[in-house]
Every structure is written in structure tokens, then in C-alpha cells.
Amino acid sequence: MVGETLSAEVAARFAGCFGSVLRARNPGKRVSVVLGRDGRRGGEMIHAAATAGLLGSGCHVIDLGVAMTPTVAVNTDWHARELASKGEVGAGMVITASHNPQQWNGLKCLLAEGGIHGAAACAPPASLANEIIAMFERGGNALDGTTMWQSLGSLQRDDEAAETHVERVLAAMQDSGLTDMSSSIGRGIRVAVDCVNASGSKTAPMFLRSIGCDVVEVNTNHSGEKAGLFPHPPEPTAENLSGAGGLCDIVRAHQCHVGFALDPDADRLALIDEQGRYVGEEYTLALSALALLTGRRRDSREADVLVTNLSTSRMLEDVAARFGARVLRTPVGEANVVEVMKRENAIAGGEGNGGTIWPRACYVRDSLAGMGLVVWLLARERKALSAIAASIPSYAIEKRKVDLARKEDAQPAIEKIAKAYANQQVDLRDGAWVNFTTGELAGKAWLHVRASNTEPIMRLIAEAPTVAAARGVLDEAGRVIG
Questions:
Q1: pTM of the complete model
Q2: Is the dihedral of CA 246, 249, 251, 255 positive or negative?
Q3: Where are the alpha helices (DSSP H) in 154-281?
């Protein structure tokens, strides 16, 4: 939280540690870091401090200003390709607290290595992330006075980052075979988009108009008094979008075909159907995959593989099954998903929190890619979003949590679950994930029990065809744990 656990000194030191690790990994090479922030009011201080930390570590900074997380990733890829031709190295950093409230902020690192279609930038693997954190916790400080003026980095601006991102997704839609002309995909389709006055406020409407949509802008103030101030809690949930005068009402009032809701850094995308009903975030990845598998051109660099985490809806398996594609699951965390995507040359991947990752655009969750694929699907199917969503088997996901004194206290419960459900498919890479393969819920349900990575709690998550069935799975898990 800014002013409590996150100060300018903390931000500068953490950014400096990231820069120092990058330079240590690339001795003798010039390192440049593409930097953007999610636009929330109060982020200017953290942005300036991170800039100082990176410069102090000897890195050069390419400043995008307010930019979506996927915009930073796309531009990191673009600059990294240019830098590599000169024997230099590129990376990225985003100042964002994602969907968290106004007073929160944070720093997200991007590493540009591996991948296909010229995309690479993504969250670093756990080993590198731990290295950065360890340096920070040891008191590492790139601004300790040992960096001489000759070794300080330089600063430059890039004011065309939004356009670069839009052009990247437009090109992806054509190169993948979805269309011969991206600018006509959304012709005749009216959309409403809520950007919570944050980083998507300029770029999202620009993209939607570039594919031919009639756009109703909601909370897209990227300058002036309202810029950076969230008009409602920023997580794109049903509760936050269904209030009086909210996006659900606006979709109905303007007779839109679809409503799109973004979080502050615009990597998450929730959907509202033509009746103003919250479709949700779980459908974003499933519908994106349906579009790609329906319309893509075969590419020898891509495998018929989709990747998601253990806590994402099995709707993705149902979509993949129609086309003979495989779904691979990973431990929770975007970095884990992307690691497998790169290893398998996956068509796409993502998470059930509204995050579509399309390598033809970038290796982070990208709301522009998600919106483009959903609009393409609406145009191709010539059906309402509610009807397309209804064509995918629906499930209910129920969640519970248990307070813990320490993360390690979840282990006995995990072991009990693994033992009790030994006759089902059990995955122990991230807590205990149980895929029901026998009984009345065979092929229709899963249970996930894991310690949170960010809070002192144990999460119990279940998916089944109905709310009652999912709650029944959780009730039984509770009895097993005791």
C-alpha cells in the first residue's frame, strides 16, 4: 500500500535490484528497460522512483508513461528486437497493482527471452524472481553511491506505444488467418468498454474503432480531473459492474452487442452479453480459444495446445475437444502458464481471471487480443454473445478459504486430500488438485486445495456442473481436512 509498505525508496531500490540482476545476466551489454504505469492516481511517484532506480543501476529507460501491461510487453518485444540487432538487451517493468484498490501499487518485471512470432516479454521464471527478491531483502541498493556518473543510464520517451500495440494485434488477426482485413471485423457491431479511467482508456477504444466497431466509451478519462480515479471498485466482477448506471445498464441502454470491462492495467477482460448480463471472466479465455481454433490458419510453429492453470474452468477442455486440441495445466501463476506455452509452442493460453495470452500478440494477458477475438466470433457466428456462450457447457466455481498462521500449515490438509482422493487423478504440483475421473462427477468436476502465494490463507476451490454440486465437493473436502 502506497505510503505504508510501498514508498519511493522501496520502489527505487526494487527497480534498482531488477536492473542490477539484468546487467549481471548480460555482462558487457547495454541493457534497456521499457517502463509504463497503469494510470492510477498517485502512481506518478512510484513511476519516478522506479525510473531513478533503473537509471541508477546503469540501465537505460524507455518511458511509455501511462500504458497497459500488455502494451508494455508488446513494446518491450519491439524494442528488444531492435536492441538485439545491435548486441544489446531489452526488458520491461510495469508500475501496477492490477485490480487492487486505488491506494495500492506495485512493480512487475518482464523478461524478453524465448517465444514464437517475435513475442517474448513475460513475467520472469521463479528462479529469477527469487533472485531479484533475495537481493532486495538483503538490502541491495543500486543507489548506494557506488555507480559513477559515467555509468548511469539514460532516459528516452516513446509516445507511440499505444499505436504499436494496436498494430501488433491487428497484424496478428490477419497473420493468423482470421481475416484478410482487420479493419472490417467489427463492422455493424456496437460495443461498450469500461476502462475505469486507467491505462486502457486511450488504447482500448482506439483498438475497437480500428477493427470497425461502434464504440460507447465508459470511464475512459485519460486526461483531466477524473483521469486515474476509479469510478467503482476496479476488479471487473459482477458486483462492480451491475450497479445502477454501470456497464450492464449501459449495454442495455445503448443496445450494444457486447460490453467489455477492463481492470486498471488492462490485462483482465470481463464480458457483458447483449442483454446486459454479466457473462464473467471465465468465459474470456474459452471464447478466445473458440475463435482461434475455429478460424486460424495452420502454422508449423504452433502445436494444437492450449495452456492454463489448475484453477481455471474446464470449459477450455470442452472447447479444445471440439477441435482435437490438448489442454495442459500448470500451477497457478501467469509465469507458470507462459513457461509451458513457450516450451510447447502453444496456440494460446491464459487464466480464468479474464486473461487471454495470444503469442501472436504477446506473452502476457492482453485485453485487446481478447476483445478482438470475441468481436471476430460475434461477426463470424452471426449470433448473440449469450447464444455463443450457451453453446459451451457451463460450470459453477465455488471458493472458500481458511486462515493460516503460516503457509506451511496447509501441507497436512493437502496430504489428507491427496490420500482421500487417491482413486481420482491427483496433481501435487500446486497444493492438491483433484480431477474427478470416476463416479457421477467423472469428467465434470475438479477440486483444488492450495496455500495462497500472497495471503496467509488456504484456498479451497471446486468446479462442477451446478452450484450445489460444487458446494458438495467443498463440503466433502472440508470433512476430509477436519
A1: 0.94
A2: negative
A3: 161-175, 200-210, 238-241, 247-253
Q: Which CATH number fits domain 8-158: 3.20.20.70, 1.10.150.130, 3.40.120.10, 3.40.50.10490?
A: 3.40.120.10
72-82 tens-digit pLDDT: 999 999 999 99
CATH fourth-level superfamily of 396-481? Alpha-D-phosphohexomutase, C-terminal domain (3.30.310.50)
Q: What is the dihedral of CA 381, 382, 383, 385, to 10 degrees?
A: 80
- Name every residue whose Cβ is closer than 8 Å to that of residue 409 and which is 6 or more positions away in sequence: 451, 458
Distance, in Å, from the CA atom of 463 to the CA atom of 435, rounded to the nearest integer, reads 10
Q: Which residues contact 204 (CB under 8 A, 6 or more apart)?
A: 193, 195, 220, 260, 262, 266, 367, 368, 371
State how far the Cα of 295 lies from the Cα of 173, in Å rounded to an integer.
10
Task: Using alpha carbons, list the distances in angstroms from residue 323 to 38, 278, 289, 320, 363.
Answer: 37, 27, 10, 6, 23
* Whole-number pLDDT of residue 482: 84
Q: For the chain, what is the radius of gyration of the CA atoms?
A: 22
159 burial type by CB count under 10 A (0-12 exposed, 13-18 middle, 19+ buried): exposed
* pLDDT for position 426: 97
Q: CA 4 to CA 270: how far, in whole Å?
A: 31
Domains of the chain, residue spans = 8-158, 165-281, 283-367, 396-481
Own/partner pairs for 439-444, CB < 8 Å, 24+ apart? 441/469, 441/473, 444/314, 444/395
Q: How far are the Cα atoms of 72, 260, 297, 344 from residue 215, in angstroms, in the given order?
A: 24, 11, 29, 37
Per-residue pLDDT tens for 335-388? Answer: 999 999 999 999 999 999 899 999 999 999 999 999 999 999 999 999 999 999
pLDDT score of 147: 62
Counting Cα atoms < 13 Å in the Cβ hemisphere of 369 gives 34
Can you name the CATH fold of 283-367? Alpha-D-Glucose-1,6-Bisphosphate; Chain A, domain 3 (3.40.120)
Determine contact, residues 240/280, Cβ cutoff 8 Å: no
pLDDT attached to residue 372: 98
Low-confidence ranges of the chain (pLDDT < 50): none
Strand-pair category, 303-309 with 326-330: parallel
CATH topology of domain 165-281: Alpha-D-Glucose-1,6-Bisphosphate; Chain A, domain 3 (3.40.120)
Cα 98 from Cα 467, distance rounded (Å): 28
165-281 and 283-367 share one fold: yes
Within its chain, how far is the Cα of 82 from the centroid?
25
d(CA 430, CA 58): 37
